[in-house]
Write the structure tokens for this entry.
Amino acid sequence: MPNRRDVLRAGLVVGGGGLLAACAGSVGPGLVRSDRPVLTHGVQSGEVTADSALVWTRADRPSRMVVEVASDPSFTNARRLEGPQLTPDTDLTGRLRVPAAPGRTTFYRVSADGSEPVVGSFRRPPSGGEDVRFVWTGDVVGQGWGIDESRGGMALYRAMQARDPDFLLHSGDTVYADGPLSDTENLPDGTVWRNLVTPEKAKVAETLAEYRGQWAYNLLDRHYRSFQAAVPTIASWDDHEVTNNWYPGEVLTDAKYAQEKRVDVLTARATQAFREWMPIESQRIHRRVPYGPQLDVFVLDMRSHRGSNPDALTAPSTPLLGDEQVAWLLDGLASSRATWKVIAADMPLGIVVKDGETGIEAVANNAPGAPAGREAEIARVLTGMRERGVRNTVWLTADVHYTAANRFTPERAGIDADPFWEFVSGPAHAGSAPPGPMDPTFAPEQVFVHAPTTTVGPAEGFQHFGEVTISGGRLRVDLRDATGTSLWSTELQPV
């Protein structure tokens, strides 16, 4: 059988006729007028289960989504399924849950009312002890760094696709709705970075249309689009899907937000766009994703239920996950029979991330002693895991714009919890940052870090993704750069 990646690349070239032309202008309806619809932004898949997956697309006009599924790329004996009407109510996007074809890999072909089809694929979770390999990263088109095709576009997605993973765990900051792009950025070597800029990326997002344009922009990149067709996504979010460092109930003071300053209103618009443009079906961000007998993924939502960032600096205890999510997480971990339990967090536990001088954005409050602020809730999770006999957990995150491996030994800090690892990766395509200070509360040790000494752009080579391979019960982590080169790795044995 032909290589899966090669088939999908060919499918995008042959089946994506008019794609780049359709994407080059506004992301709204009516991009291209021809005798039949055009799928403007390729295809994506997600929410994969043992017998089905969610398939996504977008057309340039109202039309009916159609998906064919088969176990081979020639689509012999394909099964045809009619999907929803693609209408302006959902920005002409649509999703359909399709059955998996016989075998581990399913090929799917999407069209709309006779449009040129676009091909994608997904793998179902293994039913036995087969190996699992997935990648994770975060932070896309941040700090003013957009798509510069002359410099290879979002090349990290090409490197991730070359690893042929089973899925991508996107650890938040899937877009930067608060990060406008300018036409050019000057680089230290005297050359110029030239951004592709759409109207929706030229200002902070405030309207629903502007939020929709954030996700549409990413799919203009050929590497991103090819990857999304070939690899299912487990999508999470963090702050930049709405605005920097937001928390519920906040009212912004930034003059850039001239139309709407209420974060709760902006969040509702951003949430609608996120659900329209990402392959997500769950009504909650926090959810459990089983992936065969060796792996359960627990996706956290560290944004929707948090207390204020100033309280996280000064209060003895303040919410981050909220009581309901803490109970859900502990119950789910305790009931899991998977060998490994991956906890997908959108922010790190031990790295200090401040919100100005008067607040804390992440967990660590940069103070020694007993857990306080958001640390108190994380301490409940860690001690609860030991009480319930939960073993073989690994925390994965992004957010801080460098890659690192942190080992925690909470007992050294007087906390009744088991040792654990936290692995950090990113950015996928954004500015890179120097490493932040480590908070001593949970007794972390930074075993490895790869970061610049000052804030730099993608051209300086500090873009990252992480890779997890589970084989024979062992879990291996590789921290990789934008070329796919492994910078550091470790292998963990189950207990």
